[in-house]
Design a protein that fits this description.
The complex is a heterodimer of chains A (168) and B (208). Chain A is mainly α and 168 residues long. Chain A has 6 helices and 1 strand, in the order αααβααα. Chain A has a domain of 52 residues. The relative contact order of chain A is 0.07. Chain B has 208 residues and is mainly alpha-helical. Chain B folds into 2 domains: 109 residues, RNA polymerase sigma factor, region 2, helix turn helix motif (Rna Polymerase Sigma Factor, Chain: A); 79 residues, Arc Repressor Mutant, subunit A (Orthogonal Bundle), CATH 1.10.10.10. In chain B, helix 2 crosses helix 4. The radius of gyration of chain B is 19 Å and the shape is elongated. The N and C termini of chain B lie far apart (47 Å). Classes of the chains: A mainly alpha (168), B mainly alpha (208). At the A-B interface, helix 1, helix 3, strand 1, helix 4 and helix 6 of A face strand 1, helix 2, helix 3, helix 6 and helix 7 of B. Strand 1 of chain A pairs antiparallel with strand 1 of chain B. The complex binds zinc ion. Zinc ion binds next to helix 1 and helix 3 of chain A.
Amino acid sequence: MNCREAKAEIALLVGNDLEDAGARESLRRHVSACPECRGHYQRLKQTFKVLEQADKTETFEVRESMWPALSTRLRHRQQEQKPSRRQWWPLASFLAACIVVVAIINTPAPEHSHAPVVDRGMMSELFPVSGDVSQGPLPHRDEPTTDDSDTPAGKQNKSKPNQSHPGR
Amino acid sequence: MKTRITDSVDGMAVDSASQPSDARLVDETRRGDQAAFGQLVQRYERRLMRVVLRFISDLDLAEDLAQETFLRAYERLDQFDPSRRFGPWLFRIGVNLTLDFHRKRKRRIWSIFFTDRAPEGNFDPQAADPRPELDLQQEVQQVIAQIPEKYRTVLVLRDLENFSTSEIAAILDRKETTIRWRLAEARNRFQELWEKREVIHRRADHEQ
Ligand SMILES: [Zn+2]
């Protein structure tokens, strides 16, 4: 073990974060033979007390629970989402249908097309029953659900489950 | 109702018989029971506020960030893997949100207490203002503020907030060995900086 490694492990040791007994033993051997690391250990132990005190002296006053405000915000968000979906999609579908009609009416009949020429009057009668009379945009439909690809397992990281040890 | 933040690492593993587990509350929330989410909020809000306040010293801002954390958690609850623990997942959202916010306002946040201090990285010990009226908490904050963020975050979560290194690994989405290495580096840097400012204190006392 060199001094650099020793200093890192000393830093873990002062906060009780060097749990491995073997690591502690080899660190102890290095420190007993290395005055520099011994000095580092003494100083770090002193400084670490400051951090521990700072931890203890912390007393924040908190205001009331944020839940009442939060639940209001959650309810508002949900109310915003639901009606907007209901009102928006029929309108969007209707507009899309209008666009298709306009597009069909304005499209000149293809001159060299192999596709059977369809009478425009007939076409508007067909609309919107048939979907393949036009290459134009179709009226909006609900998109297929893609929720399956969004499994929670795929989103989580792969690190080991936590094994918390009790605090110091 | 005023409540005082306690030091406990509660919330991370509340499984006492009288209270429903996090997992159950998450499940009930997913089924549409908003009150269950309310219980989770009440379980974690103090701890979350405390953590956010370690990085952002403005109480209103901290509360905004904490609320936003809960809103995002609620919206992403379907992405949460119920076989894992809710606490670290929640704090991951909160810490990321806070650090993002903090990075955007890098030059301001840490200097709320110390308006005359240079931002991290180009700290000049001679320019430091060793005001004797600063209490220990503020002095520690001032020194921690000089540590680069990736070390500082780990130091704050471990030594001020008492999360375990495995919890921090989950919160920051890093391997535990990385967290331990950063923790060691952070403590050693803190020690150096702390000693440096003690020297400044002594010098200032000597000159008076
Ligand atoms: Zn050595």
